[in-house]
Write a structure and sequence with these properties.
alpha/beta, 4-stranded antiparallel sheet, 13 helices
Length: 425
Amino acid sequence: MLRYAICLIVLGVVLAKYELYEGHAVYRISVKTEKQALILHNLEVANSLDFWQRAAPGNDAIVLVPKQLRPLVEATLLFHGLKYSIEVEDVKPYLDAEHEKLSKSAANSRSAPSSGSLTFDKIHTLEEVDAYLQALTVRFPTLVTLVTAGQSFENRPIRYLKISTTNFQDTNKPVVFIQSLLHAREWVTLPASLYAIQKLVTDITDADLVNEIDWIILPVANPDGYVASHGEERFWRKNRATGYMPLDICSGVDLNRNFDYNWGRWSSDIVCTEVFHGRSAFSEPETQAIKTVFDQYSNRTQLFIDLHSYGSMILYGYGSEELPSNALSLHLAGVNMAQAIDAVKVAHNREYRVGNSAMILYKSSGTTNDYAQSIGIPLSYTFELPASRLGFHVLGFLVDPEFIEQAGIETWEGIKTGARFVLRN
């Protein structure tokens, strides 16, 4: 999070809902060359800017700029001849609009998580997700098992659901592992994983996928960050780890840069950046918890999907631009999943792009997807779900209640297509 906001919190300044984002603007910056990307990287590091779409040649950068930094940023862009446009002059009204719409939707919600009943007309809180998962174990004791993989930095349980007709005892069955909310602000990924649970456990519309595959679904991989994002810090991305700098002026580790594959190469050792990688690979309790799942089941896991937003993309490794030995199969399965999603997507959303993460976006390291691929999971992906709309395009982390169920529907089409690819190959 921005140093300015954290300083206010450290000093005990009481802020109204989303007041810390007042006057923050969203800039779109044209990036043509590596030199321009480096200029923006240096600007990010020096000012702890929050890049929603990172700078890479051929891809526009999208960045949230605090009110007090706008003159500096604009002067820097002008000095270096970087073209930009201001997509949103002030994000706070959009945050208020999302909050109002989701609050109204929640008030009318028919969900009863504690009884194992869930609807997709709201974004569920961590407490509601936990209640729902626990209720499912009571309703379906022979099909689901709730496992605590570990504790978060703030001592919240990190739980995943095992779905199996044979209690994971049939070691000939492949495992499919789905994860969401590693980045706290990416709320739209939660209904996608919860929808998959519903289709596998309560609806069972695809019985072959339940009978022939064992499933692991981890809905909230970053519980502390997710709770924080429901407070004043809607755009919080990282975990909530402290102790990395004096007075904790900046805190948090990007969990998707903390895994042990090329750790530290294309991330940051500066705490105030959004891609701070921690003090070492697996330094964070959240990534350690996820590692325990991989340690136990990687030998059977054939498909891993880490759900993120936003961008309408299916990405595979490696973030270094090196391709895995089975890149052809990775790409083929990815295209099949993308086509299944595109067949049911909202008309105004763009079609999914499929490819190597470094080639489509930018180089990265320490990601869950790369780690999963490196330890032998043959089909490992990052899904970047599309942005929903609140009358705008660029504020892609915000959620329109009308898109919540749709996010689940279309992502499930991709997941089940990937699962059937596993069964055929």
